[in-house]
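Batch manifest, entry 17 of 40.
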Amino acid sequence: QVQLVESGGGLVQAGDSLRLSCAASGRTNSIYDMGWFRQTPGKEREFVAYISWSGTSTAYGNSVKGRFMISRDNARNTVYLQMNGLKPEDTAVYYCAAYIRSGSVSAIGGYDYWGQGTQVTVSS
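Output type: structure tokens
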């Protein structure tokens, strides 16, 4: 079992930046591809970003491309999401997840391990 814990969320103003962290514990001898998703009430969980196990391959959702950057430090078992130029529409609970299954990296079904989420609120 792998446990994922997000941190770094908070209340910011439009245009500000935040860096979210996702710390992995438990069965960390295996290195996983990782993703970030976000969700607001009444909406489907939205793909935000993906990073391969090596950190050399990334992918981003269209709504955050050019503003967000995913990175990882495998020595620290931590994945990061740097969020720049935040907009009110970025307000959501952000989840990190470990990619296990085959298929699209943007599909929720590809991820078997999820964190509890961290709230990001962007005021106008």
